[in-house]
Automatic annotation (TrEMBL), chain A:
Residues of the Cytochrome c-type biogenesis protein CcmF C-terminal domain: 336-621
Protein's UniProt name: Cytochrome c biogenesis protein CcmF
Keyword tags: Cytochrome c-type biogenesis, Membrane, Transmembrane, Transmembrane helix
Source organism: Pseudodesulfovibrio sediminis
Domain Cytochrome c assembly protein residues, every copy: 88-295
Transmembrane feature ranges: 6-29, 41-60, 95-112, 124-144, 176-198, 210-228, 248-264, 276-293, 313-330, 351-372, 387-408, 420-437, 443-466, 478-498, 603-622
Keyword Transmembrane (UniProt): yes
InterPro entries in the record: CcmF_C (IPR032523), Cyt_c_assembly (IPR002541), Cyt_c_biogenesis (IPR003567)
Coiled coil: none
Gene: ccmF
Family recorded in the similarity comment: Belongs to the CcmF/CycK/Ccl1/NrfE/CcsA family.
Source organism superkingdom: Bacteria
Automatic annotation (TrEMBL), chain B:
Intracellular or extracellular location(s): Membrane
UniProt keywords, alphabetically: Cytochrome c-type biogenesis, Heme, Iron, Membrane, Metal-binding, Transmembrane, Transmembrane helix
The protein's name in its UniProt record: Cytochrome C biogenesis protein CcmE
InterPro entries assigned to the protein according to its UniProt record, in alphabetical order: CcmE, CcmE-like_sf, NA-bd_OB-fold
Transmembrane residue ranges: 7-26
């Protein structure tokens, strides 16, 4: 089985590399009659990846511990769902999952009308890039990160999965990120290929759906990661600006920027080179993200450990950067168009892209600062969360402000609806003053919150003033995403600076105040042998506001089988669209006292609501691709 | 062809944008930088003079003090590679679930003026990842 799985990967590696070389050679020498063989060949080679993935899945589901990978990620007590998710749960498996998605994407893309409408030369260059990417991943999988290593004799039980990772958020968070990363390979390869071949058809239009889907999955992965951190780790926060968190955010900024600049190319044929560069950069940053998490170059809160794939990943990034720059600057532009007025919708899209790229640059620089600072000092300097908040939050606030005004400007310049513009400005000013006077004295938070309110009003007004928008799926999609974004901004503006947190020790019957809420410790139950939980202590906390009981929280502390030296806390909340009360049971004492961490998080759930909205409504933007010979 | 005034506005806007970005980055770098050090590196420094620092190390099984019913802990932080080198750490906040002897932690704070004790403002244990190498101790626990 091990050898069979490995041979499947080896076959695919050799086939992809051969086909990539063949495609490249044929494109340069203008031999166009080979395309059909390359297309069929990639289907067969992708089949090898599918087969090997199936072999590993069988190994996992049968708990065949002779696979080192199965032994390291599964144990006899692990539930079936988490056993399945171990396919992408480990280091080698996650890389295989990346490659599996790329391979399946290629199989789908080849039959789409968009692909079929491309010129043969562009198709050949596309395969040269796309198959080389796959070859690179298979090189890692057959060399430095082999998931088919055999253990002899096979152990009777595996090491299992850390209980903190047994959470629904962690089932979906990693694969969503990998889906996002992997799907970006299609638009990136298409952008480079179109640029070299001087393709007449717009790669922006042809790969539009791929670009949107990549963004949706990446966004979903990041939001779910934040939710898992908030609900499972018990620290009460959702984002710590840790290198591993930043790693997924950096390509998101680039991917979001290219979504905006590509609108300008689709409508005006401007920014062609910029878009090729940004699209390729986005995929490159996905590799960079993997490099940051696997190389150990930065010490992170996350124990990802050093991996031997670091060096090949590093050199692949350098190579990809060189290719990107060469293609961007050496290829010919088919049309020369310049931008419209600065104060136009087009201008605002460019400004938004600047802000997004600047955010990506700041987060990259901050993350790599311990490495960069070693150029002039032997004492590496790092940057704490204050740095990111100081630099990023004003930029994010400006982004929301830009969105308030952008829809009211004309596409090429001027104001298209003065009434709407004035109402939004009025709402912005009144909201800001109102929030400030009501105690929101953090100016940046108040401005962000006011801009969010103005943006929400603006979106509603747009659909009122322009009835045609109500029947346009694209409008619901585009403005739905931005509504999600401003809801998230609203949640961040309140829950960040205005969170109230207390830690205290209580005996049964005692109370403590957190903000305006009275928390009373009423009961403690200890039980055990529930599923894979060996021992569990569950506290009951009553939450009163004034004399009114508004909810009961039951945070617990547990010890799992196979993890007996470690305690795990499950948080409990009184959820709310305004304040959410959040509690963690920190520990127990011999005299039956208990220590708790309780926080009041205002509007925090709007972050999850907004994030979900952004991902879900983005599907409305997907549209049928043009058939060959059909232009849009 | 775009109007030259439009191009000028873009250039001015970009200059202002880069100026703002530069100012924010510069002020952030000068005020929010912290030294990232392993225990052995911290021991080689004049610790009383080091301002904010983030230390990486492991919790020593010896001299670990956690008082029941109270928050916080005092412990020796040992170097990840050179286990004979250690620093005393005091922390008064809530301990993470995964805090225990031999676990890798990251503490952020300042040294006392004599440099003998590191007073941690934050303490985090390394978050488990699906990609981490499993500890040998867990192996031993399971026999």
């Amino acid at each position: 089985m091990h050898l069979t799985g490995y041979v499947g990967l080896l076959f695919s590696l050799l086939a992809f590399l051969f086909l990539a070389c063949w495609a490249g050679f044929s494109a340069w020498s203008k031999k166009e009659n080979v395309l059909i063989f390359i297309e069929r060949g990639q289907m067969v080679a992708a089949g090898g990846v599918l087969f090997s993935s199936f072999v590993l899945l069988v190994g996992l589901t049968t708990r065949d511990y002779s696979f080192q990978y199965v032994y390291e990620n599964v144990d006899n007590a692990l539930s079936f769902v988490y056993t399945l998710t171990a396919l992408w749960g480990g280091r080698e498996g996650s890389l295989l999952f990346w490659e599996l998605i790329i391979a399946i994407s290629g199989m789908i893309f080849v039959v789409t009308p968009g692909y079929k409408s491309l010129s043969t030369e562009t198709k050949l260059f596309f395969w040269m890039f796309f198959l080389t990417i796959q070859g690179f991943f298979l090189l890692l999988l057959t060399g430095w990160s082999n998931p088919f290593i055999e253990i002899i004799p096979a152990p009777r039980d595996g090491r299992g999965l850390n209980p903190l990772l047994r959470n629904p958020g962690m089932i979906f968070h990693p694969p969503l990120l990998f889906l996002g990363f992997a799907l970006y390979s299609i638009p990136a390869a298409a952008a480079l290929a179109s640029s070299i071949a001087g393709e007449e058809k717009s790669w922006i239009t042809i790969t539009r759906n791929w670009n949107i889907l990549s963004w949706v999955f990446l966004t979903g992965g990041i939001v779910l990661g934040g939710w898992w951190s908030y609900m499972e780790l018990g620290w009460g926060g959702y984002w710590a600006w840790d290198p591993v968190e930043n790693a997924s955010l950096i390509p998101w900024f680039a991917g979001t920027a290219v979504l905006h600049t590509s609108i300008i190319e689709a409508r005006r044929n401007a920014l062609q080179r910029t878009n090729v560069f940004l699209m390729s950069l986005t995929f490159l940053l996905c590799i960079f993200s993997t490099y940051l998490t696997r190389s150990g170059v930065i010490d992170s809160l996350h124990s990802f450990g050093k991996s031997p794939v670091a060096q090949p990943l590093f050199w692949s990034m350098i190579l990809m950067l060189v290719i990107t720059l060469m293609v961007t600057f050496l290829s010919k532009r088919t049309v020369h168009r310049t931008l419209s007025d600065f104060l136009s919708r087009q201008g605002m899209l460019v400004i938004a892209a600047w802000f997004l790229l600047a955010l990506g640059l700041v987060v990259s620089m901050g993350t790599l600062w311990p490495v960069i600072s070693q150029i002039w000092t032997n004492k590496p300097l790092g940057l704490d969360a204050n740095f990111y908040n100081r630099v990023c939050l004003p930029f994010m606030s400006f982004l929301v402000l830009i969105f308030c005004y952008c829809p009211w400007l004309g596409w090429k310049g001027g104001v298209r609806n003065m009434k709407g513009l004035l109402i939004v400005t009025g709402v912005l000013v009144v909201s800001f003053v109102g929030l400030y006077l009501s105690g929101m004295t953090n100016v940046l938070a108040a401005l962000t919150a006011a801009a969010s309110v103005a943006a929400i009003v603006g979106i509603v007004l747009l659909f009122v003033f322009y009835p045609a928008m109500r029947s346009m799926r694209q409008s619901w999609g585009a403005y739905g995403i931005h509504l999600g974004l401003v809801l998230m901004a609203l949640g961040i503006a309140f829950s960040g600076p205005y969170k109230v947190e207390e830690e205290f020790v209580l005996a049964k019957g005692e109370s403590a105040m957190v903000d305006t809420y009275r928390i009373t410790f009423t009961d403690l139950v200890q039980d055990g042998n529930v599923g894979d939980i060996k021992v569990r202590a569950t506290a009951t906390l009553e939450v009163h506001e004034g004399d009114k009981l508004i909810g009961i929280m039951v945070p617990d502390k547990r010890i799992y089988q196979n993890f007996e030296r470690q305690q795990f806390a499950e948080v409990s909340t009184v959820p709310g669209l305004g304040d959410e009360i959040y509690s963690t049971l920190l520990g127990l004492t011999d005299d039956n006292k208990a220590s708790f961490k309780v926080s009041v998080n205002p509007l925090i759930n709007w972050i999850w609501i907004g994030g979900t909205l952004m991902c879900v409504v983005a599907f409305l933007l997907l549209r049928r691709m043009p058939k060959p010979g059909e232009d849009r | 062809m775009a109007k030259s005034s439009s191009k000028f506005v873009y250039i001015v806007a970009l200059t202002l944008f880069l100026g703002g970005l530069g100012y924010l980055i510069f002020s952030g770098l000068s005020e929010d930088s912290v030294y990232f050090m392993n225990v052995s590196e911290a021991l080689a420094e004049d610790r009383g003079q080091v301002g904010q620092a983030r230390l990486f190390g492991k919790v020593s099984p010896q001299n670990l003090e956690i008082v029941d019913g109270k928050l916080g802990a005092s412990f020796d932080l040992i170097d990840k590679l050179e286990h004979d080198k250690s620093l005393r750490v005091q922390y008064k906040g809530a301990l993470p679930d995964t805090f225990k002897e031999d676990v890798e932690v990251i503490v952020e704070g300042t040294f006392t003026p004599d440099g003998e004790v590191f007073v941690a403002r934050t303490l985090v244990t390394k978050c488990p990842s699906k990609y981490e190498e499993q500890s040998k101790q867990m192996e031993q626990n399971k026999g």
